[in-house]
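the two lines:
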Amino acid sequence: MNLYYDIIISELDNDKEGDFMPQWASQLSWSTLIDFYLIYVLVVFILKFVLHNKRVFSMFLFYIIIWILFGIANYFDLKMAGVAYEQLPMLLLIFIIVIGAPDFRLTLESLWKETTRQGTIIMGSDRTKTEIIKAAVALSKESIGGLITIEKHNNLDQYAQRAITLNSEVSNEILVNIFTPNTPLHDGAVIIRGDKIVCAGAYFILSSNENFEKTTGSRHRAALGISEITDSLTVVVSEETGSISLAINGVMTKMKDENTLNEYLSLFMK
Amino acid sequence: MKTILKFLIEPIRYIGSRGFAEMVVKFFDRHDWLIYVVAFFVALIAVFLIYIQPVL
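prediction for all of em together
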C-alpha cells in the first residue's frame, strides 16, 4: 500500500515540474522528421533497385551475409575471422560492381521504363499505319534494311535527342527515302510518335539476349534491345533476306505477309 | 569426415539452393506497395537507433 502511495506521489512530483514528456521525446524535432523522410526516400530507392532483379538481389543478399558474418566475428572478437572479414566487404563491393555491371544497367533501364511511363499516349491514325506497312513492304521487296520504332507509353526522347529531328508526317516515301543505302540517315532507327516521324538515325542499346541466334544482325539486336526496355513496337526489315519482323516486349516475331503485319500493327496501335 | 565437412556449409548451401532470392523478388513484384511499408519501418528503426536508443 505504501509503495502505491509512493508511486502516486512521485507521479504528482513529476507533474509539478511539468515534465510530461519522456526523456527521449526531447531528442525529436523538425530536423528528425526531415531526417526520417530523407532516409525513407533513400531506402525506397535502394529497395526498388535491389528487388527489381533476381541477380542483383542475390548479390545484395550475399553482401549482407558477409556483413553479418563480419558482425559476428567482431562481436565475439574472433582473431582470424575478424581479420579476414574486415577486408572482405570493401573488396567484395568492387568485385560485385565489376561483375554485376550488366545487371545493374539492365535494372536501371527497367526502372526507367516504369518512370517514363506516360499516362496518356498518342497513337497513330489508320493512315499512319498503312504508310508504315507500305514502307515496310517496299523496303522488303528491295531488300533494304529498315528499323521503324513506334512509341507507346514509354517516352523515347532520350534516343530522339541524339538523333536527327524530323517532325514530319509519316509517309511511305519519306520512310523509304530515309532507309535508302548510302544516305546520311539510313543507318539508324526512325522513331514514330502518333502521326509524326520524330527523328531518324536513332541508335538503341543492343540486346544481349543469349537465346538469340549468334548470326543475328545488329539491326535486329537493336530492335530487340529497345523492345526489352520500353513498351514500343519496332518493325525491322532485314537487309539480307528482306523479311519483315516485329520486336515487342523482348520478343521478335517474323511476319508471314502484309496481312499479318497489318493485324499486329492494328492491335498495337489501338 | 566428408559428411561433417559438408554439413558445416549446409546452412549457406540451403539458402543458395532454395531460390530464396527469386521468391523474394517475385513476392515484391506482386506486392510492390510492401516496399514502401518495409522502407517506412527501416527508416523508423534508423530513427530509433540514432535518436532514441542513446538516451534510453
